[in-house]
Amino acid sequence: MLFNSIDFAIFLPVVFVLYWFFCQKNLKLQNLLIVIASYVFYGWWDLRFLSLIVFSTIVDFTVGRLILKEDNQSKRKVYLWISILVNLGFLGFFKYYNFFLDNLVESFRLFGTELNANSLQVILPVGISFYTFQTLSYTIDVYRRKLEPTNNFVVFAAFVSFFPQLVAGPIERATNLLPQFYTKRNFNYHKAVDGLRQILWGMFKKVVIADNCAEFANEFFNNSDAYGGSGLLLGALFFTFQIYGDFSGYSDIAIGTSRLFGFNLMQNFAFPYFSRDIAEFWRRWHISLSTWFRDYLYIPLGGSRGGTAMKVRNTFIIFIVSGFWHGANWTFIVWGALNAIYFLPLLLTNLNRNNIGIAAEGKLIPAFKTIVSILITFGLTVIAWIFFRADSVAHAISYLKGIFSQSLFSIPEFENRTHAVEVLILIGFLLLIEWLGRENQYGIEKLGLKWNRSLRMGFYLVIVCLIFLFIGKEQEFIYFQF
Fold first, then answer.
1. How far apart are CA 86 and CA 61, in angstroms?
2. Is 395 considered catalytic here?
3. Catalytic pick from 190, 326, 395, 419?
4. pTM of the complete model
5. Strand, coil or helix: 430
6. Peptide bond between residue 170 and the one before it cis (omega within 30 degrees of 0)
């Protein structure tokens, strides 16, 4: 079920009314309703894959209880590995089976041997990368004795399948989300209004920005041979804002929806395109995933505590694995490796934590140095996104060659140029609002709260009208495929 669909527009109010008007006085009933609603939400896409979530939930709930009762370290480790192998086994089969098989066949072909192996028509379950990592963090934290496992299966099922963030995050830690299912939740008007405001901004980013950018990004990337450098650069810029509007828009809707039901989810995007270096970018982009890899992979590998060789190794591992997490294609691996190359100079010179605060905090106009740093970081990010979007590594290289040609300085020729200009103006509006709101959790969290009520309502109405103007372009969220 898509957030930007009529189905969800009906589903959400129905669940909201049942939750607050019929279940408010009974916490157990609220949690049960969340499980049922979440299974309906997920099963709406394909009922068959509900069994994967249910099975994963049973396995990790059971493993958590077994680890708690076991004092023998070897047995505790066996239980942990059962959880890891089951979860990563499902993820590996559905997401990477054909990738490894195709590369194995190609490897044999290089040595003159034809290997007869047929790819399977495997459908990738929506959100499997997200809920797999969420349940894994639970069993790992229980194993590390950082978390007391729950003995309430309904609560655990609600944690695993919580519908606002089930299919595209944020990837919540059990230490943050699980206790909230045990806490009595009363309706809070101000919290609900704040949630609606964040949903509104998320819908704007998805429907108005991402879906319009997708139209042009697809045209330029799918027909890159037909365009000169200026057009290809424009296509790369459109994809840069498509993926941001799409993914951060989803996160805003997920977080805002959660607030309607009395839950607080972690911030997943912190205005990453205002970053002053790549290290800062990765502290602000897909925060729930980057911190997951930091805590469960990078730090256990030794982090940045060892010598130069270990720092380089760990950096490449974390970024390449992150790239591979996004999809079974060499383009994602190269994208990850490229970001590691960007990041390493900062790490090796101890400059990776130079920009911890907010760019031009407390100021409307940034310093010239800040502007240059933001533009350089943004440019590097755009180049990396080309590999992320391209069909193959060869396609990405060809695309880059096309950009850095003499035609880069020509006026791009393509259909719907007037609409492209309109979309660029909308992107400018997005950047303006997010720059003004960059010290908050999302762009319009506090923007306009001190304005005259009529002016504030007029501002929200403009956003609503823009959403309805473009909502017919309905497209799936990019990260549903990851």
1. 13
2. no
3. 326
4. 0.93
5. helix
6. yes
